Every structure is written in structure tokens, then in C-alpha cells.
Amino acid sequence: MHRSNEGVVFHSARELHKLHTNVHQHDGSLVDLNTKSVELNLLGTQRVLQLCQKMTKLAAFVHVSTAYSYCNRKEIDEIVYPEKIPPQKIIDIAEWMDESMLQKILPKLMDGRPTTYHYSKALAEHILAKEGANLPIALVRPSIVTAAFKEPMPGWVDGVNGPSTFIIMTGKGLLRTMLVYKGSVVDWMPVDMVVNLLLTTAWHIGTHRPSGIKVYNCTSGDLNRVTWSDIHSTATPIIVQYPSLGVLRYPGGSFKSHPFLNTLSIKLCHGLPAYLVDALAWIFGYKTEFVSLVRRMERAAGYLEYFTTREWKFRCDNLIELREMQNSTDRKIFDFDIRPVEWTPYLVSYVRGIRKFLLKEDDSTLPVARRRINRLYYAELLAKLSAVLGVIYLLLTKTRLSQHLLWYFISLSFQVMQHLPESWLTFLT
Cβ contacts of residue 395 below 8 Å, gap of 6+? Predict the structure, then answer.
């Protein structure tokens, strides 16, 4: 027995033939958005495929890809699309080429994709389609995987991705603006529904043995539409109702549909407060970390912009067909039908799940958190009122023109009231 560089354990050919594996699910991949993901995701898939080809009793091989492997297309069907360069050539290049040189040429190879992760997942699909044509293979392409709908419990979540980052940063009061085009759809799937689809797919491939590679787009956009604007308007009140103990500012802000307005808002609502807070922290001898925190948040929002400013149409014919093949019992146990899900209750469980499982704050801390967020609300209200009154005071006391204008409007108001009908004056008083 020996171990390869990618962490896949290989046995001798004789031992592999004795394996009793019936179903193999491959979801291992490097999600870091860098050049290493190309080499490791491709080699990992290739070597797992070689392992499965030696399994004499293999009934189903289910590979987890991503719905955004072909995000350079507007409409994505349940097929493997052709690529300009064969995967093996990319593997060969990655093995000998210097990292800095590879970083320069990869953007040209990715054909409009935002990251090497999405490109490598598309190439991995090609490896399976070409080298695994003799195996019972299915590809499942989830979109953004989010908190559980039902199992193991509503709201369960153990990783941070786009929507989770949005909820956490909004809940802390840090995220005040994001570039989101009007009507941009959030395509997401609860993690338990993704798992249920994987299990059902393995059953279908193992029992029906369809010809060719079966592809399932595990997406929600065309089946149960929800937009980023819907999430913002729905989630913000929920976040206020279930606040985090670590809230730094009362949640607020808005989405911007114009890049210039969003950039300006970032400078005013993110950058300026961060530098002011760190300056005060430095003066009083505390650790300055607010600017670095905001920069990390902006980097995460920057990755998300690709998806908040675009929209895709995912065909889900195979997904719906598989759902219709389930009997009534399996539909309840292995539920992956996103169509009847109501998003508002789901967002409540999502926000509470993030609070409990990611931020490690149980419900017993809610009274303290709610008192804190109420204080922040009135503090921000007082600060805004003070700023407005300060501007008015400066205008009235520092410029002669403003004084004349003020007295002009006061005298004009009295003149207008003198000419009002008596019935109006009675009503006003």
C-alpha cells in the first residue's frame, strides 16, 4: 500500500479486485481560489477514477461538481460542455510550469470564469466523461450550498460561503453596501437536500444503469426564485430580531446597482469608519484591527460580486425526472424538492443556525444581545440627529446668506398663513 501526493490510498491490483465497494461518492476538492486547485482537483479526480475502474462490484460513482463550472455560459444544460484545451494538457502544464507563470496564463485559459476552482471543476467533469465512459457515473452540480432545511436540524451550518458571509457581516453591522444588479437571483440549495439528491442519484444509477453519464443540476433559481433584494429586505429584520453578541453597529445599508455608487459607499461607509475606529484605538493604546477586518470583508464581497451581478438559467429536467421516480416514502425521507420551500421561515432558521453553529452563541444570550443592539440603534439615531443639527447650526451662524434665507422663509410662511381661508386656519389650530 502507498499514498500518492493527492492523499488517495492505492492498494495492489489483486487487493482492489477483492474490494466490495458498490457505491463511490467523490466530493473531495480544493476550494481555494488559486492555481493549486487546478492541479489537485484534476489529479485527485483522475486517480479516484483509476481506483474505481479496478472495483469489480462498483454499481455507482457519484461525482460532486458545481453548478458554476460553466458559469461563462448564460444557459447551462445537464450536459458536459466541450473545453478548448484537454484536461491532460492542463495537468502537464501545472506539473512543470512555475507558479507565477501559471498564474499569468490561467486567466486566458479559464474562458471568462472568475476563479481557477470553477475552471478545474469543469475540467474534472471532462476527465470523468472521457476516461470513465465504461463506469456507472453521475455528476451532481449543486449551486451555493447553504444551511440545512430539515436535517440534522433546521439551520444547521458548518461552513462560511456567500450568503453566510452576507448574514454574518450584516449582523455585525459592518456590511453597509454591496454591488447587486436589480433582480439578480440567489441560486442556493440547503445542504440536506443536496445530500438527499446524492443518495437518490446513487440509487438510480445503481439500479437502472442509464447509458452515458447522467448530469443533475441541483439548483433553485428556475424552480423557486428568490433575489438578493428579497434576501436583504427579509433577512435584515430577522438579523435584528436574533442579533449577535458581537454586533458592532446597528445593521443597515443598501444594495447598489451602479459600480461607482458602490465604490463611493465603500469608501464612506466601510473605509472611513474603519480608519476612524483604528485611529481612536491607537490613541488609547488598543489593538488596531478594524481596517484589516473591513478589508477581508471587502475581498469576500468582491468574490461574491461575480454572482450578484449575473444571472444564469439552469435546466433541471433530469432533477425533476428523478424526483418523479421516487415513491411516496422516499420523497419524505430523501426530499430534494426545492419548489415548495418558503424562504422567510428558512431564513429565520438560517440566521439562528449561523448564530448557534458558526458564532457559537446559544439562545440564552439573546436578551443581552437584544439590549446591546437596542442601545446601538439609539446611539446611531442620536449621532445622525447631532450631525444634522450641527450642519444646520453651522449654516445658520456662519453664513450671512443662510440667515437671510431663514428669515425670508419665516416671513413668507406668515404671509401665506394670513391669506389662508378661515376654515383652514381653524383646522390647522
Answer: 402
Long-range contacts of 156-162 (CB under 8 A, 24+ apart): 156/191, 156/192, 156/353, 156/357, 157/191, 157/350, 157/353, 157/354, 157/357, 157/358, 158/357, 158/358, 160/358, 162/303, 162/304, 162/307
d(CA 44, CA 38): 10
Number of neighbours of residue 245 by Cβ within 10 angstroms:
14
Q: pLDDT per residue over 389-417, tens digit each?
A: 877 777 767 666 666 766 777 777 777 66
In a 10 Å sphere around its CB, with 0-12 CB exposed, 13-18 middle and 19+ buried, how is residue 209 labelled? exposed
Q: Is 300's pLDDT higher than 70? A: yes
Helical spans, DSSP H, in 354-399: 366-398
- For 52-84, what is each residue's pLDDT tens digit? 888 888 888 999 999 999 999 999 999 999 988
Q: Is the dihedral of CA 259, 265, 267, 271 positive or negative?
A: negative
Helical spans, DSSP H, in 1-86: 13-17, 36-52
Q: What angle do CA 190, 194, 197 make, to 5 degrees?
A: 140
Alpha-carbon distance of 258 to 407, in angstroms, equals 40
DSSP lists the bridge partners of residue 145 as: 189
Task: Report which residue type is found at 224.
Answer: N
Task: Look up residue 270 and give its DSSP letter.
Answer: I
Distance of CA 324 to the CA centre of its chain: 29
> For residue 366, which of 356, 377, 358 has the smallest C-alpha distance?
356
d(CA 333, CA 318): 20
Which H/E stretch holds residue 60? strand 60-64
Angstrom distance (rounded) from CA 16 to CA 12: 6
Query: Do 235 and 351 meet the contact criterion of CB atoms below 8 Å apart?
Result: yes
Q: Directed axis angle between helix 317-325 and helix 191-208, to 10°?
A: 70
Which residue in the block uniquely carries the three cell numbers 499569468?
Answer: 104
Residues, the chain = 429
- pLDDT (0 to 100) of residue 183: 83
**Gyration radius (Cα) of the chain, Å:** 28
